[in-house]
Amino acid sequence: MIGGAARLSRNDRLLGAAGGFAALVVLVGFGAIVFDLFQTGTASLSIPFLVGKVENGGRAGGIGPVLISTGMILLVCLAVALPLGTGCAIWLSEFASKIRFARAITAGIDLLASVPSIVFGLFGMVFFCRTLGLGFSITSGGLTLACMILPIVIRTTLIGLSGAPSNLRPGAAALGLSRVSTIRHLLLPVAIPGVVVGTTLGISRALAETAALIFTSGYATRWPEGFDDSGRAISVHIYDLAMNVPGGAANAAASALVLLLALLFINYLATLLADRWLLKRIAPTSE
Amino acid sequence: MITVENLSIHYGNLAAVRDVSLDIPEGKITAVVGPSGCGKSSFLASLNRLTDLIPGAKVAGEIRLNGKSDIVNDPGLDLLELRRTVGMVFQKPNPFPLSIRKNFELPLLEHGISKREIPGRIESTLREVGLWDEISDRLDESAENLSGGQQQRLCIARALALRPKVILFDEPCSALDPLASGVVEDHIAALRGKVTVVIVTHNLAQARRIADEVALFWVRDGAGCVIETGPANTIFDRPKDPDAALYFSGARG
Ligand SMILES: Nc1ncnc2c1ncn2[C@@H]1O[C@H](COP(=O)(O)OP(=O)(O)O)[C@@H](O)[C@H]1O
Ligand SMILES: [Mg+2]
Question: What is the position in ligand 1's atom list of the atom closest to the CA of B42?
Fold first, then answer.
């Protein structure tokens, strides 16, 4: 027995070392990328760069219109994916248990999460741009992204809901609480951190998306005039500068830096919001 | 008065309870005892239709509260109102992960009690379970910070705040330490005459101490049923059923 214990602890140490090494590799890799971005990009990074219009195919000027377009695409995407995703997850977890193919639906949603984004791009182009007649537009891009991140939002909300204490539902029912109140006051608060995580992951995936957007929201670099206008998202811009525009490397790196910082900020904000929310639940009612 | 007639409960193909008929007197404490797995919890949950929540559970038979319409088969039954009238306290204390105050506000507002009335109800029911002096200055703290015994008394108070006619207890003391268990038991005993109490317990000594009536559940032919009922002061001494005699003497179960 003692020998077994010792061997286990040697294995533990080995596993610890291997894990530490893996973490180091990841950290060094990530560090190298960030270092490279900073080296190539910081020189062009400035306030005028953030608000200026795109000039000379992106080699000069700034990324103002690109940021605006990205924000608008994200807005459309979240406005659709958040309510639809949480609603769908709530339905699946709280109402569909008696429906036989609820499991099949959940499996289908998970499958959807692994579909390559280019497929969503082609779907969006056919369905939103042509069939619905929305054309190359910010709306088309946002809706396509919404389809893409919907599975993430649904899955994380489902995980959040399944984390509810098992005695919560019977406890609420035994007090004569309706299903709607139970969801609104007891289950949603439990699911909120999951929704926040799902949204953050979704936003990260959406912001990093090029394939789904090139065919749907297009690559116009002018200031967008509305949601029906075409607009270039930031990752499309980075892709274009890096691949198609000779001499665009510096501005590509600077744009990538902006994207990276935005993602970090969104992650930070999400954690903050989730914490705030948890605190508020305990505090007295203010209504 | 709760009249149960030919009640059967199935989980899929498994019969948890078969053909139980029982009268539960108003304002008294009725203890449901018996070895585990004989359908006590299932029986209790059918009295406020909490069995509805279990996928695959099927209830047949009749249950009438004060001679009113049968709650098992009445299609027009107001479930939420039934559960207000027939409250339930579980084995594991289950306060909502909210403030103590919100634990009361949520059900009270749901049942149309005005905001003005709520503080009064909170105070009076917390006093009934002896918690007011202990926690009146902590109402806005999380209910999960209370001790196990306090949480269980909070759950009793929360059920009482809805002014129910019946409260069902499913082994309410078995997750508590002996001291807290005693306090909770005393407060359940104090409900005598105010509400109808049905308490599942596998603690025979507890049943002896607090019950007016006792129903002994047993497994016969693979399903739970009632093999002995009677007033608490005689049932333990003169059981008619041989299994009941062995069980009460501590030799079986
Ligand atoms: N949710 C359920 N699904 C399937 N079978 C169940 C469920 N709950 C209880 N049972 C079964 O029903 C029988 C009675 O259980 P229960 O009512 O919990 O008895 P007790 O409370 O007396 O221990 C047991 O055989 C148990 O395994
Ligand atoms: Mg039980």
Answer: 17
Ligand 1 geometric centre to CA of A245 (Å)? 70
Specify the pTM: 0.82
ipTM above 0.90, yes or no: yes
B111 in contact with A, Cβ within 8 Å: yes
CA B169/CA B200 separation, integer angstroms: 6
Q: Is B114 left (phi over 0), alpha (psi -120 to 50) or beta?
A: beta
Please report how the helices A2-41 and A249-282 are oriented relative to each other, as an axis angle in degrees rounded to 10. Answer: 130
Model confidence pLDDT, tens digit, residues B12-49? 999 999 999 999 999 999 999 999 999 999 999 999 99
Closest CA to A215 of A98, A121, A145: A121
Rounded to a whole number, what is the distance in angstroms from the first to the last CA of chain A? Answer: 62
Distances (CA, A) of B61 to A74, A237, B73, B80, B223: 57, 70, 8, 21, 15
Q: Report yes or no: B72 and B59 within 8 Å, Cβ to Cβ.
A: yes
Q: Which residues of chain B fall short of a pLDDT of 50?
A: none
Say how far apart CA A241 and CA A206 lie, in whole Å: 19
Q: Walk me through the domains of chain A, giving residue ranges and CATH numbers.
A: 67-282 (1.10.3720.10)
Q: What is the pLDDT of residues A149-191, one digit of tens each?
A: 999 999 999 988 888 888 999 999 999 999 999 999 999 888 8
First to last CA, chain B: 29
Residue for token pair 């749907």: A216
Neighbours of B68 (CB within 10 A): 8
Size of interface A-B (CB pairs under 8 A): 78
Q: Write out chain A residues lying below 8 Å of B140, CB-based.
A: 282-284
Distance from B63 to chain A by nearest Cα, in Å?
17
Secondary structure of residue B240 in the 3-state scheme: coil
| Amino acid making up residue B74 | D
B127 Cβ contact partners less than 8 Å away, ≥ 6 residues apart:
none
- Contact by Cβ (8 Å): A217, A232: yes
pLDDT tens digits for range A9-38:
888 888 989 999 999 999 999 899 889 888
Q: Are strands B196-200 and B166-170 parallel, antiparallel or unpaired?
A: parallel
B42 C-beta closer than 6 A to ligand 1? yes
Strands (E), chain A: 54-55, 60-61
Query: C-alpha angle A263/A149/A245, rounded to 5°?
Result: 55
Going by DSSP bridges, is the β-strand pair B57-65/B29-33 parallel, antiparallel, or unpaired? unpaired
